[in-house]
Amino acid sequence: MTKLFNTFDLTINHRSTQIILDVANLISNTMNMHKTTLRSNNLTQPITKAEIDKTITINTYNKVTDPDTQLILDNYLEKHLGNANGETIAVIARSGNDVVHLYEYLETKYGSKYEIQNITSQRRNDITILSAIGNNLQTLVNNTAIQSWNDFESMITTENLRLNANSRRNRTNGTMPSVNKVTMEWLAEQQADAANIIAELNDPNQQAARVRKLQMSLLDTQTKKNNLLQRVMDAKNAKLKEKKADIVVCTVHGVKGLEYDHVACFINTEAEKSYSVTDENKRIAYVALTRAKQTECVFCTREKLVKDFEAYYQAQP
């Protein structure tokens, strides 16, 4: 097994049927993911053409918004929606944009009768402005006359504005830069020691030590803020996934560790310019293909996988 998949040492899957795992193995081999053959813990299902027809289909697609792709998805979902056994259904997309398109489509088509839920995990936007200011702090001090707290505060906020003006988001949106709230909070904390900060920054024997102390304070504040944001985001995501819906729509990252009775998954199996599928696409495909317990409808971007599946199908009684 490659180093990439050394975390997937277990060969027994306690979730999926053997037919689903056979197809996962087939796709894994085509993508050169790993050499381990996944085996199901449930060996009661015979592997026949009739059982394959009931369990899995593989289709090629270009975009999730293509009418032909949506028709195949509709046919699959309508076989399982409204079942009396409370079986779960998931539609797993490759990207956040695909999730948005799929959710909007499914909500429009089925929302009046069924509950459609987007459980894509929200991601925090890491605070990085403080460490960026810290990285430039010694140069700023060298080039600024700091005679008062107002001078120090102006130096920090001006650098904050400069960094924000150069950020990709502001350049793209054409918005005016502003001083980050976290920067103003940090300055308010430091103001209690303003006299010592100004004196030491103007003392050649103490300046380097004071700059280092300020840099560590900036980094410490940034770390604490990001940890708090992560805890809040984790709580929101956990609550989001507790809610039950008729159809769950999500990226692969959002369903890692989860399982569903019926899964429609969109995976990227195309090779890049290096003629090999990227490691990230391999990981995404592996997770997506092993979420289903009963049936699966796979949408892939490589025609060869459909041909490989057909060969597997024809080899069965």
Descriptive notes:
This protein is of the alpha/beta class. It has 14 helices and eight strands. The chain has helices at residues 18-30, 49-55, 67-80, 96-110, 129-135, 137-142, 149-165, 168-173, 181-190, 194-201, 207-242, 252-255, 279-289, 303-314, and strands spanning 12-13, 39-40, 56-60, 89-93, 116-118, 247-251, 260-266, 292-300. It has a six-stranded parallel sheet with strand order 3-8-7-4-6-5, sandwiched between helices. Strands 1-2 form a two-stranded parallel sheet. Helix 1 runs antiparallel to helix 13 (279-289), helix 1 crosses helix 14 and helix 5 packs across helix 7. The model is unreliable at 1-10 and 272-276 (pLDDT under 50).
Q: How many strand units?
A: 8
- Radius of gyration, CA atoms, in whole angstroms: 27 Å
Order of helices and strands: EHEHEHEHEHHHHHHHEHEHEH
Residue stretches low in confidence (pLDDT < 50, at least 5 long) are 1-10, 272-276
User: What would the principal axes of the Cα set say about the shape?
Assistant: elongated
Please count the helical segments: 14
Features:
single chain; 317 residues; alpha/beta; two-stranded parallel sheet; 14 helices
Topology at a glance:
Blueprint: E1 12-13, H1 18-30, E2 39-40, H2 49-55, E3 56-60, H3 67-80, E4 89-93, H4 96-110, E5 116-118, H5 129-135, H6 137-142, H7 149-165, H8 168-173, H9 181-190, H10 194-201, H11 207-242, E6 247-251, H12 252-255, E7 260-266, H13 279-289, E8 292-300, H14 303-314
Parallel strand pairs: 1-2, 3-8, 4-6, 4-7, 5-6, 7-8
Quickly describe the structure:
The protein is α/β, with parallel strands linked by helices and 317 residues long. Helices cover 52% and strands 12% of the residues.
